[in-house]
Specification:
The chain is an alpha+beta fold. Helix content is 18%, strand content 31%. The protein has 20 helices and 55 strands. It has a 9-stranded mixed β-sheet, sandwiched between helices. Strands 10-11-12-13-14-15-16 form a 7-stranded antiparallel β-sheet, with no helix packed on it. Strands 21, 22, 23, 24 and 25 form a 5-stranded antiparallel β-sheet that branches. A hairpin with a 5-residue loop joins strand 12 and strand 13. Helix 11 crosses helix 12. The longest helix has 21 residues. The radius of gyration is 32 Å and the shape is globular. The termini are far apart.
């Protein structure tokens, strides 16, 4: 029996009776006056719900950029509509005080509390009208910063602020960096400095520092470091202000450019890059400047302000080091980093770009340039007209030329990791062309190097990405091969002595101090192979959780339970106990301390839980010494965004259901009696909403146990057959109890369609290798049968909709069965031509996707020609009877546009009912708001005609000639605009003549 989860909505309809006007002329005005007042009162008191339409969708609001004060007493967030101006709301978590401030059009932007929870600051963006004008003029949006005193609600506002920061653990100050004047960017000799405002929060006093390009506060808030970048580089350098005494000192000063200020976590080290112009090169030549000695003097109380002498300076300039690689310099694209014990500074090195021949100054490094003879007269530069426009593709290219083009910026900014050891005064190169990727492990004793050059070409052909793993000694630079041809390398331990990897069904740790690996799961009584993964991968792993803080064990997932497994192996401990037994997936943990370094099992561990077959969800708490986790919340709902106040046992989280927006709640550590903090969309009560959902259990045509979520339309009457939209993308039944915000972004929206009288079916699809299209048939058609058997779906009124991979499934399903209508967004239609085309958003070929990812084929089409053909919609176009809309944009970088063109032209040649929508210049989805709205409205009109027998618009019946398209679109836009309100129209009317 299918479980019916229905919440009945009772709707009260009130008939408003207007008094009949007297036939006599002298009584008309009096009768009208008497009728208007009660009618308005009744209308305000009782507003009958109605279906959600376009303008309602654009007014729907969402919550973003949340912040919880350190004491847990205040919660702040942005509340913004889909279109229009938003606001920042700051409210007490346990009291009733609340402040609301206009925040402009942006739906995102920093919101932050001071450490003592007395102030809140946030960015303010231009309002919608201003933003539109700026976009039209192609000008950037300039933000303001607002500072709110939480005791009084008083707001101070600063214009033209690009960034701000409280003084972290020292709650006394707010630093605000202003935008540089527009005129500054037009100067021939550009400089980046602008004004930095430093506000003392308690007094409101302000200090101003000029020509500041960057600023950085240490974690304790004791020091403010500033990069000075002025006109003509006059006075450029690094300045340091003691936040306790106000004393400002110069740490370094030169006719140079400084950048990338970086503090250590403890605040005992500061590093920066220093660049100078170099003849013959477009790029500056950089050195590294580091400072130490910021800690309190010996014997000084920690509570007192630090009073060091001038901090000690360490400088590494490659020009002074003969061991530094020729033709290279320090990269400006990687911030320098002190090691934890301040014995070395890490930085990147790269090959700077030379000036083109004929440009001013000789080429070569500075020491060579000085001794070089006069350069010969440069040959005339070739014009663009004389230069061929060629891209040369070679079969030995490890990356396609298109991929190299997409990754050009990354390649240009790439740097090789290196270090300068202070005591030894020694430069050590850690990364090179043999091992390009090197990352230091925690504690900076070792680094891990990753080399894929031997496998890069093959991995870009078939998607099987292997790599060699090296351990690098940071003290000597010695490199040791640890793993050969590994596919699954994971993170190093917090103590920096081990790293985790996976191979052939087991997890291993590698001890970097001993050079030895351990199979840590061979004695654990479970499997860590992800049996739920149906891609063409042999023994894929379940993703691990994380290391423990002390590095003595690691938490692993077997897909159901979480296991605590010793670093060198053992039986392991099942921390969640009942996952596999009760078919509950304990999926991931919440990071409640953003500064943590691994899991501290001495503290409670909060973990998400999900019922695989019930679709219930919740949060559990794992505590040391308890035999099983404590269930904190568990319901037909979704829970997320769990956050803890830094200095209090105050927790916030979201809860949502199919009809409840994920508003925020506040609770104690056990999440009991959560109190609602937000109400994002109170207007939802004014609209029809789905009355509930049915969880369907069924089997695929191949015998797989599957489920589908069937959402009932608003005002559903039991036994009534409904027009239904079937929407899919691999597995979607997990959305049974989740909220879907009304939107126009993807065209189709479950909440909008159920509000307008449609049922919506979301079935699960599991895949068989070599049959991605047929798998959809084997899974979706039985789901439709189950939905019809439930008494909800009208089989003659079924529409299909999917996008991308879902668009492919739609394009294929209509070749295998008949439906009332279908819309396929950006569909794959010919698996043979698609296999050898390019995923232009990444520049890579589609072949790896087909063989190792979503395509789920074994090998290329020459190995499986019949399989590729039988899963290609275009080869069965003659079977299509379903009216179809294809959305495909000319700049689609995921599914090449020709896939849509090929299917459209084939169906058109066969005189099948097909329409293609092409939004000029759009990529795989729709980014432009006007296009999103247009697509959503056309899709509704299409389904309303075929599934509800509503009149067909002209564009559907006849099409629109190219020369009339502009006029047609203008008329459509006018129709989408909100009408003037009745009251405004009444105000404009002239008084009645008597």
């Amino acid at each position: 029996m299918n479980k019916l989860k229905v919440t009945l909505v009772t709707i009260l309809f009130v008939l408003l009776a207007l008094p009949l006007a007297s036939a006599q002329t002298q009584n008309q005005a009096a009768a009208k006056s008497q009728a208007q007042t009660p009618a308005k009162e009744e209308k305000a008191a009782l507003k009958a719900p109605r279906p959600i339409e376009l303008l309602d969708i654009l007014a729907w609001k969402s919550i973003s950029s949340t912040a919880l004060s350190t004491d847990g007493q205040w919660f702040a967030y942005r509340l913004s509509p889909t279109e229009g101006d938003g606001e920042v709301i700051i409210r007490q978590t346990k009291g009733t005080k609340e402040f609301k401030f206009p925040a402009g059009e942006s739906r995102f932007g920093l919101v932050s509390f001071s450490e003592d929870a007395k102030y809140c600051a946030f960015l303010v963006y231009p309002n919608a009208k201003e933003a539109k004008a700026l976009r039209k003029e192609k000008k950037p949006a300039v933000t303001k910063a607002a500072l709110v005193n939480l005791a009084t609600g008083e707001k101070a506002e600063y214009d033209k602020i690009k960034s701000f920061a409280f003084s972290r653990e020292n709650p006394a100050w707010l630093a605000l960096l202003k935008n540089a004047p527009e005129s500054q960017s037009r100067e021939k000799d550009k400089w980046s400095g602008s004004d930095l405002v430093l506000r003392e929060l308690a007094t409101g006093k302000e200090l101003m520092f000029g020509n500041v390009a960057e600023f950085a506060l240490d974690k304790k808030g004791q020091w403010l470091a500033m990069v000075i970048d002025a006109f003509g580089q006059t006075g450029n350098g690094i300045e340091l202000r003691s936040m306790a005494t106000g004393v400002v000192m110069s740490l370094d000063n030169d006719k140079a450019s400084y950048k990338s200020l970086t503090w250590t976590e403890k605040g005992d080290g500061l590093a920066c890059l220093k660049g100078k112009e170099e003849k013959g090169f477009e790029d500056k030549f950089y050195s590294v400047v580091g400072f130490t000695g910021f800690a309190a003097a010996p014997g000084q109380k920690t509570a007192a302000p630090p009073t060091p002498a001038v901090p000690q300076k360490a400088v590494y300039d490659p020009k002074d080091d003969k061991s530094f690689p020729q033709g290279m310099t320090i990269s400006p694209n990687r911030p320098p980093q002190w090691t934890e014990n301040l014995d070395a500074i890490l930085f990147g090195i790269y090959e700077p770009k030379k000036k083109e021949e004929g440009a001013k100054g000789p080429g070569g490094p500075p020491d060579q340039a000085a001794a070089a003879p006069a350069a010969p007269a440069a040959a005339p530069a070739e014009s663009d007209e004389d230069t061929p426009d060629l891209v040369l593709w070679h079969w030995l290219d490890k990356r396609l030329q298109s991929q190299q083009q997409v990754q050009a910026s990354f390649d240009q900014n790439f740097s090789y990791l290196a270090e300068y050891r202070i005591k030894e005064k020694k430069f050590i190169r850690l990364a090179d062309d043999e091992v390009r990727q090197v990352q230091p492990a925690p504690k900076f004793r070792f680094a891990v190097g990753i080399d894929n050059k031997e496998y890069e070409l093959d991995s870009n052909l078939d998607g099987r990405r292997f790599q060699d793993i090296y351990v690098i000694d940071l003290k000597t630079g010695t490199r040791t091969l640890a793993l050969k041809k590994n596919r699954n390398y994971y993170m190093p331990s917090p103590d920096g002595t081990h790293f985790l990897f996976y191979d052939d069904g087991h997890f291993y740790t590698y001890d970097m101090t001993m050079g030895k690996s351990y199979n840590i799961t061979k004695d654990v009584p479970t499997s860590f192979v992800n049996e739920n993964d149906d891609h063409n991968i042999v023994k894929p792993p379940d993703f691990p959780i994380d290391w423990t803080k002390d590095g003595v064990s690691i938490l692993l997932s077997d897909g159901w339970d979480i296991w605590d497994v010793p670093v060198h192996g053992g039986k392991g401990v099942n921390l969640t106990v009942n996952g596999q037994k009760d078919q509950i997936r304990y999926r991931s943990r919440y990071f409640l301390d953003p500064e943590e370094k691994g899991i501290d099992l001495a503290k409670p561990l909060y973990v998400t839980a999900y019922g695989e077959w019930t679709k219930k969800a919740g949060i559990v708490r794992i505590e040391k010494g308890r035999p099983a986790p404590t269930v904190l919340v568990w319901d037909d709902a979704g829970f997320g965004a769990l956050t803890k106040a830094k200095k209090a046992e105050t927790y916030i989280y979201t809860r949502d259901t199919y009809r409840d927006y994920p508003d925020y709640y506040v609770a104690d550590a056990m999440l009991k009696n959560g109190q609602k903090l937000t109400d994002a969309n109170p207007q939802q009560k004014d609209f029809f909403w789905s009355i509930g959902s049915i969880l369907l259990d069924y089997k695929s045509a191949k015998g797989d146990k599957l489920q589908g979520a069937l959402f009932l339309p608003a005002n559903y009457e039991k036994g009534k057959k409904c027009p239904t939209i079937v929407y899919y993308y691999e597995k979607t039944s997990q959305g049974l109890n989740r909220y879907t915000q009304p939107s126009v972004g993807g065209g189709f929206n479950k909440s909008v369609y159920t509000s307008n009288g449609y049922a919506v079916l979301m079935p699960d699809i599991v895949y068989k290798i070599n049959d991605p299209g047929m798998s959809a048939v084997w899974c979706v058609l039985p789901a439709i049968d189950a939905a019809v058997a439930a008494g909800v779906v009208d089989r003659s009124k079924i529409g299909l909709q999917g996008h991308s991979w879902g668009g492919y499934q739609t394009a294929f399903l209509v070749t295998q069965a008949d439906f009332a209508a279908a819309v396929a967004g950006a569909p794959l239609t010919n698996m043979i031509s698609m296999y050898s085309s390019i995923y232009f958003n990444s520049g890579s070929a589609n072949q790896p996707i087909f063989e190792s990812s979503q395509g789920r084929f074994k090998g290329g089409y020459w190995d499986n020609l019949e399989a590729y053909q039988r899963n290609s919609p275009v080869y069965y176009a003659d079977k299509v009877k379903t009216p179809l809309i294809i959305l495909h944009n000319d700049k689609d970088g995921a599914v090449v546009w020709n896939q849509g063109i090929e299917y459209y032209n084939t169906l058109r040649r066969l005189k099948k009912p097909v329409i293609m929508l092409q939004y000029v210049g759009e990529n795989h989805g729709l980014a432009k708001a006007a296009n999103q709205k247009d697509y959503a409205v056309r899709m509704r009109e299409f389904f309303d005609y075929y599934l509800k027998s509503k009149p067909a618009p002209k564009w559907m019946e006849e099409g629109i000639p190219h020369l009339k398209m502009k006029e047609h679109l203008k008329e459509r836009v006018k129709a989408m605009k909100p009408p003037e309100s009745t009251e405004k129209k009444e105000d404009k009317k002239e008084p009645e003549k008597k």
